[in-house]
Amino acid sequence: MIKRAIESQIEEYLKSDNNKILFIWGPRRSGKTTLLKKYSKELEVPVFNFDLQSHRERFLPDLSILKKIVDEHKVILIDEVQNYPESSLALKILFDEFRVKIIATGSSELRQTSKDFDSLAGRFTQTYCLPLAVSEIEAGEEIKTYEKKNALERYRTHGQIFGMYPEVYIAGGDESEKTELLQNLLDTYVLKDVIDIYNLRNAKLAKDILTKIALQIGSEVSIREIASSLQANVATVSSYIEIFIKNYILIPVSSFKTNRRKSVSELRKLYFYDLGIRNILVRDFRPLELRPDKGGVFENFVVSEIEKRRRITRINVNLYFYREYGGKEIDLVLEDYHKNYACVEIKTKKEITHDIFPLPHKLEIVTNENYFEKIEGLFDGHVFSL
Length: 386
Prior knowledge:
It contains 15 helices and 12 strands. With 386 residues, the protein is of the alpha/beta class. It has 2 domains: 7-128, P-loop containing nucleotide triphosphate hydrolases (Rossmann fold, 3-Layer(aba) Sandwich); 134-378, no CATH class. The strands form 2 sheets. Strands 6-8-7-9-10-11-12 form a 7-stranded mixed sheet, with helices on both faces. Strands 2-3-4-1-5 form a 5-stranded parallel sheet, covered by helices on one side. α10 (203-214) packs across α13. The longest helix is centred in the middle third of the chain and has 24 residues, at 175-198. It is globular and about 65 Å long. 38% of the residues are buried.
């Protein structure tokens, strides 16, 4: 099993005096349940799965009922917490009255489904378990120096074609098995899970919206155009897209605004956390060199790797793109909370780049050849102090 980056955060939490609830958010099948099973075995405690009514019934907001759980278990592990929004009150009682350690995972943040989530303010911390990052795979493999270049190329290729869901990555070289897994992920988890949680009425519309976005990879997305092409209500399309964002399917990147020079777009770009899901939507698993969308695919790959690193490391940076009226564009602008900026130009191969960003910044050009070191550099203080 590939060691996940958040394991060090979980282990630090378990060893610490911190008794705040630890929420781990991320899409279904990203490895959350596997992590809980690992710690269940190590700690000799069960996993309460809120997919099951019998497990949910053990977490009624009743002091005497909850005390029985605390008396029997030194750590409480909960899976699929979003399926029981009412558990917010029980979790509050567990924290306030017993100060027991709780690790709870969810494919949708509880704040999106629970009217009582605000009662947990100040009582929790959170982290993320997302599809595999290249840095996680690289850290877990013993790669000789002379093999690293080929290994990084292999990771990049797999990430752009089949994505990085753990079960898809470890399926080996069987393309038919990988595509079958991806179809199952799309139908059973990505779509069904979201539709069930939010009681969406139109599964076909949800899939059609995602497909439209998949076909516009790397471009600004107009909700009105999507709605018009699908003969759907603009508000409905917008609502579905926000749900996909909240459930770690889509990554939104807004246009950067500055008073010193006008940028033109009110639109957003939308990228996929996992390109395997994107490619199963458009039914294209050809080698990258044969694909007309290879530039957009590589751009999505880099953005998703940066977003995964941002989430995993819990580093406070915002992501934007920047475009002038003349059409010149910066693919990605990273802004930290001290208003330091790093601009990222994403190219499949090294090209002449026009530096147009109007504020003081550092510019990085990310290519097929250097993507790993450049992304690492964004988060280790070499580009700007985070």
